[in-house]
């Protein structure tokens, strides 16, 4: 627990520094975390040379605002993403009914989030495959530029319902690798894959897997108050906040975090003073309540947002307050995680 406390200590200072960040930091070449490498380099230590201060001993990875930690290991990635929306617990209405097995199963009008991501990314020239089949998680050598977790829940990466021999010793002759998708996701990220988490993907997904908690920003959802109107604060300049006003209205559940996110670039926050009610348990985060952030993680890129509870937020022209800004934020966040526009600098 000592390492854990050391990792989390100073979160408030990290947050304050992020709030005050401006474009004065200069280009990627002048960034404190260096420039993204363009070619593979031999791995000779767990911590690449010059990146010692970015090593997180709790998650056993290099993470944070450190472009030089990126792994350009897959040269043939396509302008394509995989949208993964499997739920192993609560299921948001915007996901519609559970999808059939396989890649790109039939969608209906009820699959609001899936339809929106396919449409929105198609408008910017990115192909989307979608699935809720845990066996299709991309892994080593995958050519997807990003995998997008859309409101997943609980142990979404566990292969439930697989028969085992209850009274036998471990049987190594069967393919009963029930958490193979965890291995695949970790290897995908380590090879330079992009990860995007939308709403419940950082709101109760893979609670008991530390690697995923780190991928989400060293944090997990604790609870939320009422689904209500609030004011979003745009914190800093970034590809995914480009075109957003300094303050804008939106309606959401406004997730609370425990532990508080660390080592990330904070992108958006909610002004808690704009909320009519709060959670009855979690005390909230006071003057700094982040809701979107990004980081480099274990060789890959990670971009996440807690926004996106209401189905109307995914429907163009719905009249939902802040819908156009939410769309812009999500689309640019995905593009940045893919590496098509500058990421997290």
From TrEMBL:
Keywords annotated in UniProt: Signal
Signal peptide (from-to): 1-32
Entries under Pfam families matching the protein: ThuA (PF06283)
Residue stretches making up the ThuA-like domain: 81-316
Protein name listed in UniProt: ThuA-like domain-containing protein
Native source organism of the sequence: Paractinoplanes atraurantiacus
